[in-house]
Amino acid sequence: MVWYEDLYVGRLAQTRRDALISGIDSGNYPAGAWLITVPDNPLRQLEMYSAGELKHDYTREHCLLIIGLALTRAEATALLEKIVQDVYSDRGDADIKAWLSAEHPHRNSQGTGRRE
Fold it and tell me: Which of 83, 93, 101, 111 is the residue whose CA sits 20 to 30 A from 46?
């Protein structure tokens, strides 16, 4: 999995940010954790799902970039709105994938820069 360098983190998840990321990276999917990801499907901008979905091989294999982390579904929805607002403010449109690839770095789970 690849984590967005400027990861969006919900208020409730903020104090547990590092522990949540570490747990997810090691295959322990914390109850209540929600992820916002950029899917490999070119027709979709973002996806939001429970971290527990990563137990499924298909989800893990297709989870290309995690850009948001929250502790409730409502918090994840608020982060989605924040991301769209930030993209619109920067670009004047809602092309999230272009915004991410053009100007915003991401790192792999070891924190070593762009995904290899």
Answer: 111
